[in-house]
Write a structure and sequence with these properties.
Strand order of the largest sheet: 1-4
Number of strands: 6
Distance between the termini: 19 Å
Structural class: mainly alpha
Largest sheet: 2 strands, antiparallel
Order of helices and strands: HHHHEHHHEEHHEHHHHHHHHHEEHH
Length: 417
């Protein structure tokens, strides 16, 4: 979700995001365990809100006969609905709103009158269709079997949940008429509806059923279903969870599923390699003009004995390509053999290749094979201590969203850090 107060990664120069191309790697390993959730989909309320909006939008425009612009009509109706839902949720003190910056500004303006529409002046995000619930929450719901098709039509699995929410709402048509109208409304007019709407999307049984469907990840995801069974047992025993590492440790200790355990072990193994690569690369971004041998000398403070003895990158060749996999293997071997200079060369070569494939330029290059020349500098990167190198998590493998939803739905105090 973009925040107006922060730099937007999408506005950076071409090739400036994920400079070592690790998103493909950690996503691959994360998807072996969490099949539906993404790094964005960590709000159970957002799922409930989206589900209602998909139903109402399909009720309006999703029925046969299908028209050529049916998807656009359903989407545009949903965008209007999402705007109304955001204002109602904000008035109900719900801060998990996508687009909260604009919502807060508009609703708190003196003599404000709220309007709904698809034009830019009405949208609550810079590109609401892409970065709101329509774009970012749909895939997780589709993979869980809650919606289907491009028009996000609710499935039979959603029926009982939606019936409970709509029963709590009482008169859905009041809300539909409101966001379909071009007539502005005031904050005071929205307040009574806010209480009704927020109570409805938090309806206990509906919320519980929705959580279970999402957390199982779909009827064919046996690994995630096993993970969910163990997670519920941990909740019943009031197990304390603080961080992804602690969560994985608990799951492995309780699991009788060798496939689930092995996939979690693979996540732990690859994360240590990615953290090491990020540490070295980001430090190089501070060392313009330094010699590679001096960087290697500084890296000798570390022991890499915490890395697993054998990590295979062979399964990644299909989507990473041979060149990138070969670099990753050489980097790993350089760490294991304490060849710090080779490790630096390999991580810089990986950045060069990733940028080349994107049509961009490397962030750090070696001049004459000896001197670092930094093009995209880091002002804050430091070499961490050994404990940080061994325990830090740079990527969440979709586990953070999983923990977040479990914590909300089961009323726990679990954290991801």
């Amino acid at each position: 979700m973009p925040f107006l107060s922060l730099l937007d990664d999408r506005a950076k120069p071409k090739g400036s995001r994920d400079p070592l191309g690790f998103e493909l790697i950690w996503t691959h390993f994360g998807r072996q365990v969490i099949g539906n959730l993404t790094t964005i989909t960590g709000s159970l309320s957002n799922f409930a809100v989206a589900m209602v909006g998909f139903k109402w939008s399909n009720d309006l425009h999703g029925q046969p006969p299908e028209a050529a612009d049916q998807q656009n009509k359903v989407r545009d109706a949903f965008l209007r609905y999402e705007q109304l839902a955001a204002y109602l949720r904000y008035l109900g003190n719900d801060n998990r709103i996508m687009g909260i910056t604009r919502v807060q500004k508009r609703i708190n303006e003196q003599h404000s009158r709220i309007s709904f529409g698809v034009d830019a002046r009405f949208q609550i995000l810079s590109d609401q269709a892409s970065y709101g619930l329509w774009g970012l929450y749909s895939s997780a719901m589709r993979d869980a079997g809650l919606i289907t098709g491009d028009i996000r039509q609710p499935t039979s699995a959603s029926k009982a949940i939606l019936e409970r929410i709509e029963h709590k709402i009482g008169q859905p048509q009041r809300f539909i008429d409101l966001y379909c109208s071009d007539k502005p409304v005031t904050r005071e007019e929205l307040k009574p509806l806010s209480k009704i709407f927020n109570q409805a999307i938090r309806e206990k049984t509906a919320r519980n059923d929705l959580m279970h469907i999402l957390m199982k990840g779909g009827q064919h995801n046996q690994v995630q279903q096993q993970l969910w069974e163990i997670t519920q047992a941990m909740a019943e025993e009031k197990t304390n969870i603080a961080g992804i590492s602690r969560f994985i440790e608990e799951i492995k200790a309780r699991s009788n599923d060798s496939e689930l355990e092995q996939r979690l072990i693979e996540i732990e193994r690859i994360e240590r390699v990615l953290v090491a690569a990020n540490t070295i690369f980001n430090y190089c971004r501070r060392k313009d003009g330094a010699r590679i041998d001096s960087i290697a000398k500084e890296l000798r403070r570390y022991s890499f004995r915490h890395l697993y003895e054998n990590i295979s990158f062979e399964d990644l060749r299909g989507f990473l390509g041979t060149r990138r996999v070969d670099i990753m293997q050489r980097f790993f071997q350089a760490l294991k053999t304490h060849d710090q200079e080779m490790a630096v060369r390999e991580v810089l070569d990986l950045n060069r290749l990733v940028m080349e494939l994107r049509g961009g330029c490397p962030w750090v290059e070696l001049e004459n094979g000896i001197t670092l020349r930094v093009k995209v500098a880091s002002e804050i990167a430091e070499l961490p201590d050994q404990d940080n190198l061994e325990k830090r998590w740079d990527y969440d493998y979709f586990i953070a969203s999983y923990i977040s939803i479990a914590s909300q739905g089961l009323q726990l105090q679990w954290t991801t850090r």
